[in-house]
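User: What would this chain look like folded?
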Amino acid sequence: MIDVLVIGGGNAALCAALMAREAGASVLLLEAAPREWRGGNSQHTRNLRCMHDAPQDVLLDAYPEEEFWQDLLKVTGGNTDEKLARLTIRASSTCRPWMRRHGVRFQPSLAGTLHLSRTNAFFMGGGKALVNAYYRSAENLGVRIRYDAPVDRLELRDGRFVAAFVGGERIEARACVLAAGGFESNREWLREAWGRNERGEWPADNFLIRGTRFNQGTLLKFMMGQGADIIGDPSQSHCVAIDARAPLYDGGICTRVDAVSLGVMVNREGLRFYDEGEDFWPKRYAIWGRLVALQPGQVGYCIIDSQAVGRFMPPVFPGVRADSLPELARALQLPEDAFMKTLTDYNAACRVGSFDHTVLDDCHTEGLTPVKSHWARPIDTPPFLGYALKPGITFTYLGLKTNEQAAVHFGGVPSDNLFVAGEMMAGNVLGKGYTAGVGMSIGTAFGRIAGTEAARAALKGEVHAAAA
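Assistant: Here's the prediction, encoded as structure tokens.
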């Protein structure tokens, strides 16, 4: 019999498989995707948010525990389990040597991501290189890997794992780690979570999926039906405003448009709807998907002028270009009068001091609702650019409640051989909001814990079985 069964194929699953194998357990990993699409959403990542008290190779200065915690507290609005959040934060300070041993390499932050050079360690080659390194290491260590192996149900007995089913095939194991992601690719479940808005629209019908098409939430729904303890709001997710021309699935980071804080955002009625300069982009970029989802037609338009060009990571798709603002409104098919009033009022409200996009500068608006708190400069220097944006779901936050041992709970009681990691439990730490790289911090921390605990449970059970 297998000691540890890992269900999933992304960062958290791989960390669990590697840790369990290093602890001496036999491990089988089941990845729902075919080999060429392996890695879940982790293949689209590029960095890990790391606590550190002094400069470390690619990380500048210091990013102490309390600052990390305060950043997380701010973006979640306090909707987080402090004990599990701090566990994640502390684990982020010690995981990189282990990651290197398994082939992950790091590099300094790229141009256009300098805000993250103190807080986030970037993977050389991005997330695809990271998951490839982990798969190579797992294979070298003797982890068995099966692709095209979606698990649709489990056999449970009194809160304990017994077996998993891939179609009609039953696979037994002494312990199991669930790391199969959220339900972001399940359109019906997204519809159910978001419902209809006051305009009678199904917002979810206009969502794009930044990540993998294989995260249908099948096991999450199964576990909910089996009475597992659940945490999180099904409508909350890592949701980013991405280019409306992005593909339905697997667009990843390159579909983002990072110019929002340098200009204004308007809806299809030509009206602004939120403070574009509230905080640094890495801390606020993930609120914009939800904000756009609440707008008519689930679409927003980022408007900048030539002053902003070169100050943000160039997007894959070129912006709509015009030599005047009225021409831009027509090109974007926005109501020209409303658009021009919005831009005229905004330009007049700007109080420009010392513009500096690397700090929370003193360029702001006065007498304007919503305010723009920082980086407010008149949009008056042609050419002008506009980007139509739609909500892009990366992963959902509804998940399984867990503890410091990464155990799945039933009626408040932790299972002694069923564990959870990654997006299936991220809602314990992320009740809402997001800050760059923290998803990988959660997946790495709880993947390693889940793998260690699963191996301990399996090997303990093996000893008892032998004694019997």
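The first strand starts at residue 2 and ends at 7. If you want, I can go into more detail on any region.
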